[in-house]
Design goal:
3 domains; about 25% strand; 11 helices; D-Maltodextrin-Binding Protein, domain 2; Arc Repressor Mutant, subunit A; alpha/beta; about 300 residues; two-stranded antiparallel ribbon
Amino acid sequence: MTIRHLRVFIEVADSGKMSMTASKFFLSQPTVSQIIRELEEHYNVLLFERIAQKLYITEHGRYLLSYARHVVAEFDTLEHAMLQINKTQQLRIGATLTISTCLLPDILTQLTTRLPHLDIFSYSGNTASVEEKLLKSNLDVGLIEGSVKNNELISMPLISDYLVLICSSTHPLAGKKRVTLKDLSNYSFALREAGSGTRTMMESYLTEHHINIDVRWETCDIDSLKTAVMQQNLLTIASVRLFEKEIKNHDVQIFMNGNYEWDRNFHLVYHKKKDISQSISVLHDILIEYGRPEFLADAEYGIVLY
């Protein structure tokens, strides 16, 4: 039993709804149910009764609630007192390479502006490595473009992103308005390394549509990926945000998926047993302010069709 159990219990008791509690603490509703069940098993009592799809706190629940409010209040007083001794808060953020390149610098600037005493450690890697570090408690939160595979992690889609087919302005596909998936088999590609969210998504998509491509360049470095496109005239499929400068300068041409199958989200990820600190809440608020990339409104692009 932890403080987190008591916080969730108090909110369920006050709101009478697990869905509202889940939203407040950025949890899934099954996770809230599990937390309440763990409390009931720990004390061997029934805390809530469900009647006609409504929750009613039991006598045992009311007894625990009075103590829980006191314990949580005392804990918060302790936290505040200790933080006053050392006013620096810490937040360890892991971000995938795409997000690290496109968004993380601005996100960190906003975080330090809103929380001047926040001490931030940042790590850049692919989706698999960020997930591993979260599970080992080496990171507090992760920002990823892929899907997490472990059900111990909570993943919240917050920022819209778009994968696009990209070629240089001198590539044979440059200037075309439409490209079919079968056309891609005729050209060579540069792709991200295995384990990246982008690579996983594209391999799944191409396999589903029975398309084989010739991969000539594999890299975990964004600058290297751009070099492969710009100097070696290879195709790539990557986040449109990575090539913002090149798109604005008309150095590359992009092709959007005509069926919107390459649309995706960047996710905020954390362990389901992680207490949501002030810094994580502020980070969440910053992320939901990002919308569709503004430069796309003026960009010319072709379409990839099946």
